[in-house]
Amino acid sequence: MNIWLSLLLSLLLTSLVSFALPIVLFTVVLAILGVMGHFPLISPFINYAYAQIWHFLATFGEGSGIFGILIIAVTCAIAGLLFESLNFYRYRLLINKPLKPLWQKPKTAEIISKIICSNDK
Predict the structure, then answer these.
(1) Which residues cross the membrane (predicted)?
(2) Residue among 88, 74, 94 at smallest CA distance from 9
């Protein structure tokens, strides 16, 4: 498979997962709070938490909680896309040039050979 096709498929999958995750998370939290709001003793607390989460989402959605969820999801998708492209960039760099740990110092023989080879030019 072409490396660019692999990159595009990886970017697409990452952005879709990053988009879907906040939607699923907020939907599950709101659904659980909605169901728990039917219990008599904790109903006022749960309804207050539900209203506060919905107000938080409405802040991002210019008054609409659903648009707030979508704005947060699009932002997470863009962040996931950027992180995946950074990961791909680092992967391409590490293939061409392996990274030496900072604690691994060059050996004396390597330093001397670099000095000798640079002086020969």
Answers:
(1) 30-51, 63-83
(2) 88
Joined together, the tokens standing for residue 118 give 């640079």
DSSP state of 97: S
Name the CA radius of gyration of the chain, rounded: 26
Half-sphere exposure of 56 (CA within 13 A, CB side): 9
Give residue 42's Cα distance to chain centre: 35
Q: What is the pLDDT of residues 45-89, one digit of tens each?
A: 988 999 999 999 999 888 888 999 999 999 999 999 998 888 887
CA distances to 58, 80, 82 from 10, rounded to whole Å, are 32, 11, 12
- For the whole model, what pTM was predicted? 0.69
